[in-house]
Amino acid sequence: MERQYDLVIIGAGPAGLSAALYGSRAGLKTLILENGAPGGKLIKTNKISNYPGVKEIEGTQLAMDMFEQATSFQAEYAYGEVNKIDENKDVYLSDGSVVNGKAIILATGTKERLLNIPGEKENLGHGVSFCAVCDGAFFRDKDVVVIGGGNSALEESIYLAGLARSVTIVIRRDVFRAEEHIQSQIEENEKIHVIKKHIPVQILSSEGKVSGIELENVDTHEKQVIECSGIFPYVGQDPNTDCVQDLGVLNERGYVLVDANCQTKIPGIYAAGDVIDKELRQVVTACNDGAIAAQHAFHTIKGI
Ligand code: NAP
């Protein structure tokens, strides 16, 4: 890693990798910093079937393809945990090093929201998992519970139903948040059951492993226990924006506010993908943001 780059991209999900592709292809000296594996949420997603031109692909494969393409024009890729970005576009890493970009693109995405109930943290890795694709195989022919009614919860339930004996989805309202076509697949799947109008109260364990979950009816407050070996909370996401807390670029929910060029109010500091304040969080919209940010950064840096 050197001290100075044209473009420093933080995060190697679809937004960051698209930004790297556009930036490096345009000739910008580009660095991608990532503190995990490249691909972002793609590597935790079983199948992607709404990325135009690709009928259906495994998330890990699309991640690999994007990474190879993004780094094929000399974009540098490095492990790096970013603690802070300042107004001068200096990027401070946890190992003490500092890099500067003429432009910075924050593409750090979101992290899974916790249920924050007793038994959750204690049983992480012992039956509680936030990644069906990573851990689903441990629950072959077992009973699992998925919490949440969004796209993530329902898509991952369909994946889990291919492995588990049964999947019980628990939602707190009587309607799902997920898209209609995913709901139809849930209704058609005999292994999937839905419990509506219940919230999780505590996760139960026995001999160091999850044994069940206690639920409460939101109307009657009656409680019931569902016996299960696995629990997958998919109750939404929160943005990874700790490193820009001091810049005054966040909305009240912690997402980054950007203009139509994906630029924050600080010239040269951009954000792209799930981390920005927007309606539609998809692979295709993340790629869109990354391309727009990198292209605008290119024009600004080159003065054209
Ligand atoms: P989401 O859409 O925000 O859904 C979260 C779900 O969890 C909702 O059903 C919500 O219930 C429920 N919930 C929240 N807090 C809860 C709590 N404390 N206890 C019980 N239930 C709780 O989150 P997501 O599914 O992770 O999706 C995030 C974004 O990524 C969305 O924009 C989504 O469209 C997108 N995404 C898209 C795809 C795709 O296009 N194929 C796939 C995955 C994700 P309420 O509905 O009652 O609020």
UniProtKB/TrEMBL annotation:
How is the cofactor bound here?
Binds 1 FAD per subunit.
- GO MF entries: thioredoxin-disulfide reductase (NADPH) activity
Show where the FAD/NAD(P)-binding domain sits: 5-290
Extract the Gene3D superfamilies matched here: FAD/NAD(P)-binding domain (3.50.50.60)
The Gene Ontology CC terms held by the record are: cytoplasm
Its Enzyme Commission number(s) read 1.8.1.9
User: Which reactions are catalysed by this chain?
Assistant: [thioredoxin]-dithiol + NADP(+) = [thioredoxin]-disulfide + NADPH + H(+)
- Which cofactors does this protein require? FAD
- What keywords would UniProt list here? Disulfide bond, FAD, Flavoprotein, NADP, Oxidoreductase, Redox-active center
Q: Name one GO biological process term.
A: removal of superoxide radicals
**Top-level taxon:** Bacteria
Top enzyme class, one word, equals oxidoreductase
Q: Summarize the subunit comment.
A: Homodimer.
**Similarity comment:** Belongs to the class-II pyridine nucleotide-disulfide oxidoreductase family.
- PANTHER family, A to Z: THIOREDOXIN REDUCTASE 1-RELATED-RELATED
The protein depicted here goes by the name Thioredoxin reductase
Q: Which organism is it from?
A: Holdemanella biformis DSM 3989
